[in-house]
Design goal:
The protein is mainly α. Helices cover about 20% and strands about 0% of the residues.
């Protein structure tokens, strides 16, 4: 019987500790796509107001 190095390494199967993968990555947010929105929707709408409305 051959013993591999991985067979000798202990593996902790407990659920304690940080998650392996986060629920949401920074790339999956508006800031990750380079889009930042202010907290109020009014200023966002005023920024995207068409020029012919002035």
């Amino acid at each position: 019987m051959t013993v591999h190095p991985d067979d000798l390494r202990p593996v902790d199967l407990s659920e304690e500790g940080p998650p392996v993968l986060p629920d949401q990555t920074s790339d999956d947010t508006d800031a990750g796509w380079g889009e930042w929105r202010p907290s109020d929707d009014v200023s966002h709408l005023l920024e995207e107001r068409p020029p012919h409305w002035d």
